[in-house]
Amino acid sequence: MISIDEALEFVKNCARPLPSQQVKLGEALGLRLGESIISTIDSPPFDKSLLDGYAVAADDATSTRRVIEQVIAGGVPHYAVEPGTTINVMTGAPIPDGADAIVKLEDVGLEDVGLEDVGHEDDKRPGESTIQLPKSGIAAGTGILPRGAAFHVGQEVLTAGRHLSAIDIALLAEVGRPELTVTPRPRVAVLPTGNELVECGQRVEGGQICNSNGPMLLALLESMQALPIDLGIGRDDPKVLQPLMQQGLEADMLLVTGGVSAGVMDLVPGVLQELGVRQVFHKVRMKPGKPVWFGEYVREGQRKLVFGMPGNPVSTLVSFEIFVKPALRVLAGGTFIPPQSQRGVLTDSIGHLGKRPTYYPSRIHFGQRKQGLPTVETLPWRGSADLAALTRANALTVLPEGNYEYSAGTEVDFLTL
């Protein structure tokens, strides 16, 4: 039996990022960028107006200007601004030649005698409209976003390895990238095993229980942007388990629950070995989750990770949090990050017996602080089959190995769920 740190090191050494793939822009949200994005355009592609107003030459001393054209976003100026003239521009419109500032629409006096159609679809030329500029004048550059101010041709706008957000998707669209290279979502097969399991909604006979591990793992995988594959329930029969596990090994990762301990029906390690999966470790000094099994399957240069987790649901959850999550991050192009504990203060006393560290369901009250730390309420818990306790938990208190009693006010480590 190995320590948690030793087991994590084994998992880290086996996990590799998945090969990059080309995907459409609309499929890239939440994925990691597999290439650096170099812009082939300037943004904005022209000097543009930041507001609705009038394009003027700042050094023109004329206080009254004749409006010679109107330009909306998407249009282009057909005239240049000359002394004594101005052009009415809308937000996003290009800046006309001869202009170096925009006077806000609300800051001018306007005598409008109508607009004359000059034959351009989006633009009109005023007849005898004039504006009166504010007495305070205007500085050059006011109201203008210069060409390439946001980014320019040849600039790296997104770096490889970035976790793509909705804003990143918008930027990629602006740059004109309908497709890009990313690390794909890991495909993870889920196989709960046991003769006692029935699917949710089916009639439960004597000695049977509903399959809760399968739905829990599928939901956890969804929350991590993985692509879950539901293999159904595997019965405790090698002839049933073998084809299901073989199917699961087509995915990037296989998660099996149940059948990994030392009972007469704990068949999973043997079946995996027959399929060519190399055992890396079996049994870790932790509670719950001691029987956890980990192996790797290498075929035609492709590496598949396999986790066999105990059948009790809390054991499954703890094993997933400690070992599966860090491995998934690596497959998805991220770095291997072991579980990161935080510090809190117990609100009540708790005792511990045994040589295995325990992950104890707890409720962290981040708004209630003592000694500058959040308070930790350990919850009533009846062991690794007590899934109900976890519905109130938002963390696992880490109780080190040994025989001791912690009193209220003791500082402890916890892992958030």
Describe the structure.
The model is unreliable at 113-119 (pLDDT under 50). The protein starts with a helix and ends with a strand. The chain has helices spanning 4-14, 166-175, 213-223, 238-248, 268-274, 313-331; strands spanning 21-24, 32-33, 37-38, 48-49, 53-56, 64-71, 85-89, 101-104, 109-111, 115-116, 125-126, 130-132, 144-145, 156-158, 179-183, 187-192, 197-198, 209-210, 227-230, 253-257, 278-282, 293-299, 302-309, 342-346, 350-352, 358-370, 373-378, 395-399, 404-406, 411-416. The chain is α+β, with helices and mostly antiparallel strands and 417 residues long. The relative contact order is 0.13. A 6-stranded mixed β-sheet has the order 8-5-7-6-12-9, with no helix packed on it. It has 4 domains: 4-18 and 185-331, Molybdenum Cofactor Biosythetic Enzyme, Chain A; 21-43 and 150-183, Molybdopterin biosynthesis moea protein, domain 2, CATH 3.90.105; 48-145, Molybdopterin biosynthesis moeA protein, domain 3; 342-416, MoeA, C-terminal, domain IV (Beta-clip, Beta Barrel).
Rg, rounded, reads 32 Å
Distance between the termini: 26 Å
- Count every beta strand, where a strand is a DSSP E run of 2 or more residues: 30
Helical coverage, percent range:
10-25%
Name of the level-1 CATH class of the largest domain: Alpha Beta
Strand order of the largest sheet: 8-5-7-6-12-9
Mean pLDDT, as a whole number?
93
The rough form would be described as: elongated
Query: Can you summarize the main beta sheet?
Result: 6 strands, mixed
Output the CATH topology of the largest domain: Molybdenum Cofactor Biosythetic Enzyme, Chain A
Number of domains: 4
Structural class: alpha+beta
Q: Give me the number of helical elements.
A: 6
